[in-house]
Write a structure and sequence with these properties.
Chains A, B: Keywords: FAD, Flavoprotein. Chains A, B: This is FAD-binding oxidoreductase. Chains A, B: It comes from Paracoccus onchidii. Chains A, B: Belongs to the FAD-binding oxidoreductase/transferase type 4 family. Two copies of one chain form a homodimer. Chain A is of the alpha+beta class and about 475 residues long. Chain A folds into four domains: about 5-90, Uridine Diphospho-n-acetylenolpyruvylglucosamine Reductase, domain 2; about 95-215, Uridine Diphospho-n-acetylenolpyruvylglucosamine Reductase, domain 3; about 215-335, Alpha-Beta Plaits; about 340-425, Alpha-Beta Plaits, CATH 3.30.70. The first copy, chain A, is about 35% helix and about 20% strand. In chain A, helix 8 packs across helix 10 (about 320-340). The longest helix of chain A is centred in the last third of the chain and has 21 residues, at about 320-340. The two termini of chain A are about 30 Å apart.
Chain lengths: ~475, ~475
């Protein structure tokens, strides 16, 4: 490779054999919004090499971009401009160091993919209950750095809730050894949770101890037709109260999404005909002795009696469970085929959701003709709120409106106590949003902490805070 | 009150009517290890007054000691020496601001007692699933600042896991408004978790939004006799696997504790005769349709078949449930009546517990004749490991050994990847322990953050870090 003098000087300070070829895979992100650049790409084999790389960059004042699976949706995994950074890929730190069966704990390095972690847990008769569409590629380090969510947060929490300890390299090159396997430890500030969700701006997580969960003895899935989001929320409360928190997923699906699905994936069988305006997918994980189908039937009957549910199907086989989830997971694919004007990863206090959905629809109607697909993890108050061209029109027709539309949606969310980034993070995409809507006290503390731990500003500059 | 000139000057800068009389209640802690002092005691009525007090102290370089219910066991609630601080009591910020039934969220001010919070949740048909012996006095602000634990952590997590957002005053007097009611929000650093467990050294939490949980449809409690801690752990794993994580408490009780109980509370009926060497208390909270007694019976049978359990009783009534818990909760009272040489709030990786209990017993036997009561939240790996005089001897006989014994216990814990403070925090009592056993990278980051957020060092100086 032809390196410039500064990169060659830095390369000479790195541990032997850590450099990788600078290839496009490290410099792209899934939605193609940003194109990254890099002077060097280094992949350490262990913690000591990772620390040596950080120390060398710190001495040379070269920025570091930590790189996991590269599946993030807000551009936190690359740097599009400024002096060329070193990309620090965790791909070779990809060992599940150990599964502690009798503790329900796994220690995994950051380069382990979510799927590998899930498989290792399964082999031990446990589950790692974090599930994402990108789990074959997304890595543990990135999952933690972005505090990823997914479909089972309702029962098991975000990535944050599943992490007992971390090992990391701080921006100074110092090592943070906090890979504890403890459920309780009150000995000083919670640095683990500070690095989780910091999107690589306070250090590089190199390994984590992860909490595993028992596999429920009985699982079941149902789809139910509800009148509106308010009815869906009341059904959720009913389900949680009947099932003592054993509801593992509660997904809201809009008729619009099902219509996109019918159009672009006509081979997929949909459970209801005609397509309902709103339906929910409910998954439960129950103790032994209580049949999941009975429990879901009981919920359906109670929901129908309360006027919340008008139709429903309960999966009768493992295949049908897969089919139901398949339907849910194809909605983003159908969305992509249609092509969104703008998409939003928002969360709201649960009680604000019905009014938000009504009011935002009315507000957007005033802005012109478009289609809204609002779906997602209702149990967590997390909606994917996407805007699409009216039938017969193109994305491009809305180019000059896009920015204003997103601003309006986010404003309505923030006014109602919601978040403009529920699970994807701030990355580079939402730096301005954070500056605009973040609480001044929070922003001030965030800046102080960043300056204290990374005084040279070398860790993923431009992510979360402006450069 | 007769104030010195400096205190009088500071008093004149405070909001009208916030000063309270300096009375002993603010300057004591439950175990009488420390005696605090104070120049002023101020109790703000709202957030703005709290911020004004902090700003005035900051300008005057006067230390602030946040004060909740005063039930902490490590001396974090008072300052025994140095220039007299201002004690900032949250006692008047004692409103449950609102319970959001349909969100299962409560917003409560820091001065609300844990019992009041639990009652407010019950009235809304929910539970606030944090339970401590001191809940009638302990306040939400202190609960969060110390990341309190208790008996239901196994299922519901520590205080940290039950907090969705906080409102706080930072050491600069700036206000942190982050009282969100969201289950998902990835917009910058997790300041909430940084202040939780910071024991008042990074600011004063004034209010919090708390996650409530559904009340399980079926609850049950059983006591079972196990051969040893290893069998108890295998029974725990069996219970969790059968009940899909519906085990809400799993407490280990040592025969020594039951003997202390028999001696000092002879009127309490114990379920097993003779007193077994080890027993466990198991509580479950199950979905509707699955009888708790059936579930516990099923566990007993399976446990007996696996050779883990030799005897058991399942509570047949609400009264019996209360009686079983009463027994568990009287163990610390009996302990106090005996008088410990030294007590330890430790946690260990679950798989290390059996060997730790054996090895520490052998190690202590070499140090002289004493009795060990080792009990606690086994499901969380959290043991209260207390040493008592041999029968016929006095606490005082061990005075010159006390320090060395604690050091040895803590050393064995740390060597096995455990914590020298599982739930009580560092406070003033364990500052030296943290300096000795804390990871250097962690300590360095803790110091940097403290210096960044509290450059004048006015927030609870001497707690967590040495002054």
């Amino acid at each position: 490779m032809g390196l410039n003098a500064a990169d060659a000087a830095l390369a000479s300070k790195l541990p032997q054999g850590v450099l990788r070829e600078v290839t496009p895979a490290y410099l792209e992100e899934p939605r193609g919004r940003y194109q990254g650049h890099a002077g060097l790409i280094a992949a350490p084999r262990d913690l000591e090499e990772a620390a040596a790389i950080v120390r060398a960059c710190s001495a040379a004042h070269v920025a570091i971009v930590p790189h996991g699976g590269g599946t993030g949706l807000v551009g936190g995994q690359l740097m599009p401009d400024g002096p060329a950074p070193l990309v620090l890929s965790l791909e070779r730190m990809n060992a599940v160091r150990r599964v502690y069966d009798d503790e329900s704990v796994m220690v995994a390095e950051s380069g382990v993919t979510l799927q590998q972690a899930r498989d290792a847990a399964s082999e031990a008769g446990r589950q790692f209950p974090l599930s994402l569409a990108s789990q074959g590629t997304a890595q543990i380090g990135g999952i933690l750095s972005t505090n990823a969510g997914g479909v089972n947060v309702l029962r098991y929490g975000n990535a944050r809730a599943l992490c007992l300890g971390i090992e990391a390299v701080l921006p100074s090159g110092e090592i943070l050894r906090d890979l504890k396997r403890l459920r309780k430890d009150n000995t000083g500030y919670d640095l683990r949770d500070l690095l989780i969700g910091a999107e690589g701006t306070l250090g590089v997580i190199t390994a984590a101890s992860l909490a595993l969960a028992p596999i429920p003895a009985e699982t079941g899935v149902a789809m139910m037709v509800v009148e509106d989001p308010a009815a869906a929320l009341r059904l959720l409360a009913m389900a949680q109260s009947r099932m003592a928190g054993s509801v593992t997923a509660f997904e809201l699906i809009a008729g619009q999404g099902l219509e996109f699905l019918a159009e672009h994936f006509p081979q997929m069988r949909q459970p209801f005909d005609p397509i309902p305006q709103w339906q929910v997918l409910i998954e439960v994980g129950l103790p032994a002795g209580l049949g999941a189908q009975d429990a879901l039937e009981g919920l359906f009957v109670a929901g129908a009696e309360a006027g919340l549910v008008s139709d429903g199907v309960i999966a009768q086989s493992g295949q049908q469970v897969t089919d139901f989830w398949n339907l849910r997971e194809h909605i983003p694919l159908a969305n992509r085929a249609v092509g969104a004007i703008a998409s939003h990863d928002i969360s709201l206090p649960l009680s604000e959701i019905p009014a938000f959905i009504n009011d935002s629809r009315a507000m957007l109607a005033e802005q012109g003709d478009m289609r809204i697909n609002c779906f997602g993890h209702l149990g967590d108050g997390n909606l994917h709120y996407n805007l699409y061209p009216a039938a017969g029109r193109q994305r491009g027709d809305y180019d000059d409106q896009r920015h204003a539309l997103s601003r309006m949606v986010h404003e309505m969310v923030v006014e109602r106590g919601g978040s403009f980034s529920a699970e994807h993070g701030v990355g580079r995409l939402k730096v301005e949003d954070l500056a605009r809507w973040g609480d001044p006290g929070r922003l001030s503390a965030i800046r102080s902490i960043k300056a204290a731990l990374d005084p040279k500003g070398i860790m993923n500059p431009g992510v979360i805070l402006p450069r």
